[in-house]
Amino acid sequence: MAVLIANLSTGKGTWGHVSRLIADGDFDKIFLITNDFGKEKFQNEKGAELISIDVNKPIPELVNDIKGALDGKISDTEVALNLVSGSGKEHMAILSSLLKLGLSVRLYALTRDGVKEV
After folding, report:
1. pLDDT in tens, 58-73
2. Is the pLDDT of residue 111 over 70?
3. Could you tell me the residue range of the domain that residue 91 belongs to?
4. How many distinct structural domains can be found in the chain?
5. For residues 53 and 28, is the Cβ–Cβ distance under 8 A?
6. From CA 61, how far away is CA 13, in angstroms rounded?
7. How far apart are CA 40 and CA 60, in angstroms?
8. What is the DSSP letter of 42?
9. Which is it for strands 114-117 and 104-111: parallel, antiparallel or unpaired?
10. DSSP 3-state helix, strand, coil percentages of the chain (rounded to 5)?
11. Residue 81: pLDDT above 70?
12. Which of 72, 76, 84, 85 is nearest to 105 (CA)?
């Protein structure tokens, strides 16, 4: 799996999960959907592209923002997706964006046995 898309938002301990997923995973490209706070504070050690969204916007606007930020940047037909961090609203917008871009998704998470498709 060459491309990882992960939500980096709210939720106790979720930044640690995303950090380990990035560190332990074998991804060629990494996109993190986050907010301004995450873009400023996250320790980006693997060169992930951080896409900042305003979670106060309605879902359709979030979908357009995320889709616009990713459009033309992913040449694969499927991506690894991690939604451990964030809210349902963010998750819906991310998933909708990926589907509207014609991408299929495989859900990935950090497990006791390492980074695995779940």
Report:
1. 999 999 999 999 999 9
2. yes
3. 3-117
4. 1
5. no
6. 28
7. 25
8. S
9. antiparallel
10. 35, 25, 35
11. yes
12. 76
Question: By three-state DSSP, how is residue 82 classified?
Answer: strand
b (16+ CB within 10 A) / e for 33-68 = bbbeebeeebebeeebebbebeeeeeeeebbebbbe
The amino acid present at 60, given as its one-letter code, is P
Q: Which two tokens stand for residue 5?
A: 């898309």
Rg (CA), the chain: 13
8-state DSSP, 85: S
**CATH number of the structural domain spanning residue 39:** 3.40.50.2000
- Gap between the Cα atoms of 56 and 33, Å rounded: 14
**Contact (CB, 8 A) for 52 and 69:** no
- The residue whose two tokens read 């992913």 is 74
The model carries a pTM of: 0.94
| Contact (CB, 8 A) for 66 and 51 | yes
pLDDT confidence of residue 1: 58
Tokens representing residue 70 in the block: 């990713």
- In DSSP terms, 30 is beta-bridged to 4
